[in-house]
Amino acid sequence: MTDCPLPTAFAPAERSTKSQLLADARLFQTSAASEVLDAMPSPVLVLNDCRQLVHANRSLWLYLDRSGADQALGLRPGELFDCVHARKTPGGCGTTEFCRECGAVGAILSSIRGLAATRECNMLREAGGEVTALDLLVHAEPFASLGRPLTIFTIHDVSHAKRRRYLERIFFHDIINSAGNATGLVELLHEQAEGGQRHELGLLLRTLTHLVDEIQSQKTLLAAESQELVARPVRVRSDELLEALAEQYAHLPRAEGRTIVVNHDSEALALVTDPALLGRVLGNMIKNALEATPAGGSVRAWCRAEDGRVRFFVHNQGCIPRPIQRQIFRRSFSSKGQDRGLGTFSMLMLAQNHLGGTVRFTSTEAEGTVFLVDLPRVLDKP
Q: What is the pLDDT of residue 34?
């Protein structure tokens, strides 16, 4: 290492000697590990115990739009990526007070101690006089197979996904507020209207209410897929929930000429669950059943206590063809055309991942199709 100690506000500033860097680099030049790393699609750096680059795969140079490692040997990740803090101190990357919050430095230090780590790294870069932002998911893994304490440092750029999620949050916030305000205004006008105008405003109100519900459904699904959704269990009565859903979905365009019936022998059960998420699951079951029901037909729903759990059922007389049955819960599969196919997948994901339950179905020519969601009586809080 360098003889003269350098000041640091976080990670050690000392660096390996030039001869040690070259010796570490030669370990990979003569090793099959180099070919393995080059076959990987993600950028990979090999770092020594001073957090310095001794080898990198082909994907890194493509990502950085550089031809190779001519001047890169011995650089630390922040220096290689032009982090705005990497050259503020003599010790370089990892030695400023800002580096205390850097996920990349934290992961590498963990690896040097012998523990693999995955962290998020949010970096500001400055290159060519321009500042840009990078959002990275990094993984640091100890690697000692070649006789030296090294770290395999893998980078996955999640900037696009983070930016998209941020824009989605803004979009849903603004569109839900706008649609909610419009719904409230139409509701006020509907209460004051008379005659034919009242009927027309009633139709508009139901359409806007359905629009808000669809937007909320998409927001819930995206939050679930990004693992940001948190269930909020409260006490719920099964009969009240089913009656409310039957009333809500009876006004959908797809329900015209069809009826939604809650069976008279459906059990009135108390359970502790998230009513909004359960409503999404049951609502998708009802909507799918309505689409499979011809004009003049009916969709039936009921609830039973079985085996110490609560089961909700939704039935229609249609039969799902066997090829479709085998793909029913696939994320992007739909028998209704392109850009569909999230309904049954969202039912499964919400029920299993967030409500502690399961979703399944039966479908035959003789008995029709029944979807059921099986839930615990009490949902444990996460």
A: 87
